[in-house]
Design a protein that fits this description.
The protein is of the alpha/beta class and about 280 residues long. Helix content is about 40%, strand content about 15%. It has two domains: about 40 residues; about 210 residues, 2-enoyl-CoA Hydratase, Chain A, domain 1 (Alpha-Beta Complex). The protein has a five-stranded mixed beta sheet. Strands 2-13-10-8 form a four-stranded mixed beta sheet.
Length: about 280
C-alpha cells in the first residue's frame, strides 16, 4: 500500500481555484437547476396522469372519422363510443335507452327482445359472465341471437361468455352502427353464426388496465409479463376453438392500449370473425 496522494484532477483544481462566494453560488445554481428539472418531470407526470384519467373516465361520445382500409387506428376510450356524421344509434333488441354515454360506463346489462333476440349493452366487468349465465338460465332461456354493444373490459369474463354462447348454440352480432371493442370481439367469436352490420365498429388492442369499482382508481388485470403471455394464449386458444383465425390477435398485440385497431368488413370475413358472406356487387 502506498501513502502517495494523487494530484487533483482538472475539475477539482478548477473548483479549488474559485473564490468561496463563487463556489457557493455554483452549488446553489446547481441545486436550483436540479430542482427545476425534477419539478418539470413532476409536471409532465401529472399532465400525463391527468390525460390518462380523462381517457379512462370520459363517457361523452368521441367524434372520430370512419375508419378506412389503411387508416384504421383510432383512439380508445373504455367508457365511450365513437360517433361520426354517418353513424346513427344501433337498434338493440329489448333495449330502448340511449346507447351512448352512461350506457357504456355501466356494467353490461342484458335485455330480452322479440323472436329469440336479446342485447348485451355496456362494459364487461369482473362478474359479467356470471350475470350473463343467470340471464340465460332465467328470462333469457329462449334466446337464440345476441346483439353486442360494448367497449370491452374483462378478458377473462369475455372468454367465459364466449364459451357459454357456443355451448348454448347462440348466434352473435354487432348491429348496424354498433360498437364492439377490446375484449368484446372475443364474445362475438363465440357465436355459431356471427355478423356485423353496416358501419359497425369492431376493434382490438393490447390487454390493458381497466377501471375498477371506483373510476378514480385503476386495477391492472395483467401486471406481469407471464400473466400477459398467458392471457394472450387464452385469447388465441379461444379463437382457434371458435374457428376464428388467430392471426386476428396479431393486430391486438400490435396496437397500444390507448388505441384501437378497427377491422374492415373484408378483414372481419378474412379472419372469420363474421360468417356472413361478402355482399354481392350491385348490378
Amino acid at each position: 500500500m502506498s501513502d502517495h496522494q494523487a494530484s487533483p484532477g482538472w475539475i477539482e483544481r478548477r473548483l479549488l481555484s474559485l473564490p468561496d462566494g463563487a463556489l457557493l453560488r455554483l452549488v446553489f445554481f446547481g441545486v436550483l437547476a436540479m430542482g427545476a428539472s425534477m419539478l418539470a418531470q413532476d409536471v409532465l407526470n401529472v399532465v400525463g396522469d391527468a390525460g390518462d384519467r380523462d381517457r379512462l373516465t370520459r363517457t361523452e361520445p368521441l367524434r372520430l372519422p370512419r375508419p378506412q382500409p389503411g387508416d384504421q387506428i383510432r383512439p380508445y376510450l373504455p367508457l365511450a363510443v365513437p360517433v361520426a356524421p354517418d353513424r346513427g344509434e344501433p337498434v338493440l333488441p329489448g333495449y330502448d335507452a340511449p346507447a351512448t354515454g352512461d350506457a357504456m360506463a355501466k356494467a353490461m346489462s342484458f335485455h330480452l327482445g322479440a323472436d329469440g333476440a336479446a342485447s348485451a349493452v355496456g362494459r364487461i366487468d369482473a362478474g359479467t359472465a356470471g350475470a350473463f349465465r343467470q340471464f340465460l338460465d332465467g328470462e333469457g332461456q329462449g334466446v337464440r341471437r345476441l346483439a353486442l354493444h360494448s367497449p370491452g373490459g374483462s378478458v377473462r369474463d369475455a372468454i367465459e361468455m364466449a364459451t357459454l354462447i357456443r355451448d348454448r348454440k347462440l348466434e352473435t352480432e354487432v348491429p348496424a352502427d354498433g360498437y364492439c371493442a377490446s375484449a368484446c370481439p372475443l364474445v362475438l367469436a363465440g357465436g355459431v353464426a356471427r355478423q356485423a352490420g353496416e358501419s359497425a365498429w369492431v376493434g382490438v388492442h393490447q390487454v390493458y388496465a381497466v377501471p375498477g369499482g371506483d373510476r378514480g382508481r385503476v386495477r391492472d388485470l395483467d401486471r406481469s409479463v407471464a400473466q400477459i403471455q398467458a392471457t394472450i394464449a387464452e385469447c388465441q386458444n379461444l379463437l382457434v376453438a371458435m374457428d376464428v383465425d388467430p392471426r386476428l390477435w396479431i393486430h391486438a398485440m400490435q396496437t397500444p392500449a390507448d388505441e384501437l385497431y378497427v377491422l374492415t368488413p373484408a378483414e372481419l370475413r378474412e379472419f372469420r370473425l363474421v360468417t356472413t358472406p361478402e355482399p354481392a356487387p350491385a348490378s
